């Protein structure tokens, strides 16, 4: 920013406006975006458009570079600005009533005008002196360029037409009760065509906007002073969108290029904009000058100059404060655009924070979010398929309808693709139990609870899980955790029963896809079964094998029986259990433990289960 003001202050000091603008364009081209193709379009307007800032005469405030949707109309209904100052001998009043309007011909091109009417009043003991009259008409155009999803650059060349009254006599010669033409404290006209240029940078957030203006003016209304009252200016405004009341603060700085005209206005503005309907809004604000201007002597022209009479330079009047109130009617749609602007907002469902670098796709249009926003720009009306993907989050797929001439903001809350399982293992007296936990859906991984009987795991949100929990001297237990829930943290408490000498809880043995090999992690469980059968030689058990539905039915029957047989052979070979004590059966896919609707649930159905079917007479 220091670079910009250096260019403005020193390039403009010598009125080298073309070199100034070229330098600014080169700086912006290097810093932000290639603007060279826009410069030839702006150059004729810069050379021809003229404006002089004159104490708020035109009603120009901090400008915005924010595009609108379609072709719309903006109307500035009478805006009243009232300045006041009180001294020991006199009271000064100055006010302006400003009207105007403009049209957004496209989302990126605006043209407007402002017509001011001014009233000055001086109250002193000898009588009141009043001056009323039309000021110079101000016109402008605005070109807007988007730099990224929430950052915009604008160019606003402008000019004034000298239609106001020119002051031709000294205010001290005014007669009380008569209308003094041309303004008492400020000139209602410059009597010349004056021009200038704003460069505008606008930044938008969800509820706030920041606007920065940089520019300068050439004015020719005071040649008698031997210098031109040229200005350079910098200003910014910060708006907060709170709802009905929207507060803002503005800072305005200006400076003459020579010391002939003294100090130029510097003030801060506090105010609020209130929406009173779909289109109208009322703005209240107060200007607070940051210093008082010094007195500038009246200059008498010589006979060779085409301007006659006494001309007071830039107003000596510096108010103590000013109050502004305006009624605006804006964004009245004149012609609906066939296109709509679409933005996707991605938010973490748990924290409410925006998520960056989220892949968003609307049909063939691809964007990645920046600060949680994916701006798809202007799209044709229709129905679009929205796909959103981000590592660590569940993918989103939905259809959205895009109408005509809309500003569409779609907020999508992304769920993390895992949830945290808090498993608590207790006995019937609620004492913690150190236990082992087997998850067949996690490739048969086993875990252990800590001394407090706690186990914490991050699991896939969309999956269902079955787990077998056992501990020495306790009956084992199976639990089932259903997927597709909305919890970020799921607490599960398991109460284990202490087993009697004659009691035993048979585990479930799970297998990999298309395999009947017993996995190593299940061998400790089978060792428990083998030891139990050795201590209970009269038990006769049945091992039932099961399969998931992939493949032919006949093949699955054979595979399920081989799984039961593999478990049986391990018990016979390792512990010498007699074959006639173990019966095996294969059920194929016919007896699922859970519905076969996902890969995780099908993994739960690839299993072998134990049943006690009798006791041997021997």
From TrEMBL:
Residues 498-616 form the OmpA-like domain. The chain crosses the membrane at residues 35-53, 92-115. Keywords: Cell outer membrane, Membrane, Transmembrane, Transmembrane helix. Coiled coil: none annotated. SUPFAM superfamilies: OmpA-like. It is found in: Cell outer membrane. InterPro entries: Bact_OuterMem_StrucFunc, OMP_bac, OmpA-like, OmpA-like_sf. One of its GO terms (cellular component) is cell outer membrane. PANTHER family: LIPOPROTEIN YIAD-RELATED, STATOR ELEMENT OF FLAGELLAR MOTOR COMPLEX. This is OmpA-like domain-containing protein.
């Amino acid at each position: 920013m220091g670079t910009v003001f250096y260019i403005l202050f020193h390039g403009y000091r010598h009125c080298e406006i073309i070199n100034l603008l070229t330098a600014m364009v080169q700086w912006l081209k290097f810093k932000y975006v290639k603007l060279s193709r826009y410069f030839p379009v702006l150059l004729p307007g810069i050379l021809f458009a003229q404006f002089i800032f004159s104490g708020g005469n035109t009603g120009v405030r901090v400008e915005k570079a924010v595009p609108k949707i379609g072709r719309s109309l903006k109307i500035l209904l009478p805006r009243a600005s009232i300045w006041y100052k009180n001294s020991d001998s006199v009271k000064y009043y100055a006010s302006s009533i400003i009207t105007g309007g403009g049209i957004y011909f496209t989302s990126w091109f605006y043209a407007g005008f402002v017509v001011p009417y001014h009233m000055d009043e001086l109250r002193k003991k000898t009588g009141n002196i009043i001056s009323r009259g039309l000021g110079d008409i101000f016109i402008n155009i605005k070109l807007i360029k988007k730099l990224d999803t929430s950052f915009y650059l604008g160019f606003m060349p402008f000019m004034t037409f000298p239609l106001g009254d020119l002051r031709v006599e000294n205010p001290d010669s005014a007669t009380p009760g008569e209308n003094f033409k041309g303004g008492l404290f400020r000139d209602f006209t410059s009597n010349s065509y004056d021009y200038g240029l704003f460069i505008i940078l606008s930044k938008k957030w969800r509820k706030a906007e920041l606007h920065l203006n940089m520019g300068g003016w050439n004015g020719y209304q005071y040649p008698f002073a031997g210098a031109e009252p040229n200005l350079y200016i910098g200003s910014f405004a910060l708006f907060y969108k709170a709802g009905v009341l929207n507060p803002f603060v503005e800072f305005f700085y200006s400076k003459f290029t020579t010391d002939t005209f003294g100090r130029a206005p510097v003030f801060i503005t506090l105010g609020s904009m209130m929406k009173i309907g779909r289109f109208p809004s009322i703005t209240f604000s107060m200007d607070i000058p940051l210093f008082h201007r010094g007195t500038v002597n009246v200059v008498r022209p010589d006979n060779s100059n085409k301007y006659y009479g006494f001309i007071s330079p830039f107003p000596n009047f510096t108010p103590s404060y000013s109050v502004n109130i305006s009624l605006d009617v804006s964004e009245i749609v004149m012609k609906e655009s066939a296109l709509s602007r679409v933005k996707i907002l991605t938010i973490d469902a748990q924290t409410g924070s925006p998520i960056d670098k989220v892949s968003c796709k609307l049909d063939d249009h691809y964007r990645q979010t920046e600060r949680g926003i994916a701006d798809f720009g202007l799209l044709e009306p229709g129905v679009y398929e929205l796909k959103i993907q981000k590592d660590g989050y569940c993918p989103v797929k939905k259809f959205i309808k895009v109408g005509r001439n809309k500003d569409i903001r779609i907020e999508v809350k992304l769920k993390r693709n895992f949830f945290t399982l808090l498993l608590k293992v207790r006995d019937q007296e609620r004492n913690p139990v150190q236990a082992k936990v087997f998850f067949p859906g996690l490739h048969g991984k086993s875990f252990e609870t800590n001394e407090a009987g706690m186990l914490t795991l991050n699991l896939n949100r969309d999956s269902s899980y079955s787990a077998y929990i056992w501990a020495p001297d306790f009956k084992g237990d199976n639990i089932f955790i259903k997927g597709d829930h909305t919890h970020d943290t799921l607490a599960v408490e398991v109460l284990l029963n202490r087993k009697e000498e004659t009691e035993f809880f048979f585990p479930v043995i799970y297998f990999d896809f298309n395999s009947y090999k017993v996995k190593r992690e299940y061998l400790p469980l089978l060792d428990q079964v083998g030891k139990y059968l050795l201590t209970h030689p009269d038990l006769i058990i049945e091992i039932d094998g099961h399969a998931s539905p992939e493949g032919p039915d006949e093949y699955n029957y054979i595979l399920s029986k081989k799984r039961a047989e593999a478990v049986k052979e391990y018990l016979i070979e390792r512990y010498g259990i007699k074959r006639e004590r173990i019966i095996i059966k294969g059920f194929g896919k016919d007896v699922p433990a859970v519905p076969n609707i996902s890969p995780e649930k099908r993994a739960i159905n690839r299993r072998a289960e134990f049943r006690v079917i009798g006791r041997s007479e021997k």
